[in-house]
Amino acid sequence: MGNEVGISRRDVLRTAMLGAGMAVSRPLRVGAPQVKVFDVAKFGAAGDGKTLDNAAIQRAIDAAAAYGGKAQVLVRGGRKYLTGTLVLKGAIDFHLADDAELLASTRREDYLGGLANSSDADRMASAGGALIVATGAKGLKISGTGKLNGRAKEFMTGYDEAGEWWLPKDFRPKMFVLTECHDLEVRDITFGDAPSWGLHMLGCDGVLVDNVKVRNLLDVPNCDGIDPDHSRNVEIKNCDLVCGDDGIVVKASRQTKDYGTSANIHVRDCTIETQDAGLKIGTETTSDVHDVLFESCKIKTSSRGIGIQLRDEGSVYNVRFKDIEFESRYYSDPWWGRGEAISLTAMPRKAGLKVGTMHHISIENVTGRAENSVRIWGSLESRIHDVTLDRVDVTLDRWTKYKGGVYDNRPSAAGVEEHRTVGYSIRDADNVTLRDCKLKWGANRPEYFGEAIESKSCTGLKVERFEGEAARAGLKREVAL
User: Fold this and answer.
1) pLDDT tens digits for range 196-212
2) pTM reported for the whole predicted model
3) Which of 3, 70, 81, 453 has the largest count of CB atoms under 10 Å?
C-alpha cells in the first residue's frame, strides 16, 4: 500500500465526512513489484488442528517482514491451524486462503500479555492476550476468505440460565489487538466464536475494514464486533456482523499511554445483529470522539439501536447517523440497553467524576421498530446541546417477555430506573430540533406507554411538522415536566 500512487485514504475519508458517502477509491498501481509468497507449511506448520503451529507461522511472518519487498504470508486452505498469539508485522499481506482456519488455543501460556488489570496488561490493550496482534505496523494487510475460530464456549465456566448468558473464565483472549498501525487493511475474512472483543484497533491511523464477516455467539458477553479505539481516518464498509455485544463501537478507552482522539471515522453499508447496541459511541470516552459518520446500515436486532454514551472526560461532537434501519428490544437483565430506539446520554460514570460534553449530533432518515423510547438525556454535570433529529420514524410496541417501563443508564450511578415509555424523551438539553419526525404505536400498548414527546430542563426545543400522538386517549401529545 505504501508504494501505491493516488489520493490517500486519509484525504478520501475527510471528503466523506463532508460529502456523506464518497467511497474509498483504490488507486492504480504503477509498476507493482512481484509478490513473494511465504507459505506457512514450508516453515513447518502442520495444519492438523492439533499441533500448536505458533512457532512455524511466526517464522513465516518474520521472514516475510524481513524480505523488504512485497510479501504475502500464505495460510493455505483445507487445514486448521491451532495457534495462540501471532505477532504480525508491517508491509506484509497475512492471507487466509480459501477455507483456512486459525483455531484458538485454549491454553493461557500460548498467549502474550497479562490478564486484565495486571501490571503488564497494557501490552495487550488492558486485556488478557489476543490471537492476532500487531504494534506499530505500517502497510499491514489481513486478507482472504478464511476464518478465525475463537472457541468461545471453551473459555466459559458455564451457562447462567437466569441471566441467559455464558459466564467467562478468568482468561479469555481477544481476537485482534492492532495497536498504532498505519495504512492498515482488513478485508474479506471471517472471525467468529470470539471469547472477548473482536477486531480491536487501538491508536491506528489510515484503516480500511471491508467485507469482514463476524459470527460470534449472541449469548457471550463482551464479544464486540469491530472497535476503532483512539483511531483516526477509518473506513468500515460492507461488513456483516453477528455478535452478542456491541456491533460497531467507536471509543476512546482508558490506557496507560495517550493514543489521541478518535476522529474521521466512516461506517457504511453494514448489517448488524446483536444483543447490545448496533451502532454506538462510548461508553469509554476518555479522549474526544469527533467527525464520525454512520450511514446506510441495517440493524436487524439490538438492545439499543443507535447509541452515544458519554461517560468520561472526553467530548463527543460532529457525529452524523443517516439512512439507518433498526430493530431494538429488551433482553435479559445482564445485557445493557432496554430496547431504546435511539439513546444519547451524557452523565458521569461515577458520582463526582468529570464528564465531557456532547454536541452537534445529527440523526437523519432513520426508521425502526423498538420496545422503548428515543432518548436525549444530558445531566446536571453535562448538558447535551445542538442535536437535530430529521425524518426519524419510530414505531413503539412490546413483543418480548421482559419487564418494561425502565431506562438503562448504565454505567452510571443512576443505573436502571423506572420510567414511562414515551416516544421522544429529552432532558437537560439545549437546542434540540425534531424535524419531520414520526411516531406510531403498535398493537400492544402497556399502561406505561405514554406521551409522544416529553421534555425536562430544556431550552431551545423545536418541534417542526411532527406526526404522532400519545399512546392512549386522554394523554397530551407533549408534556414538559
Assistant:
1) 999 999 999 999 999 99
2) 0.92
3) 81
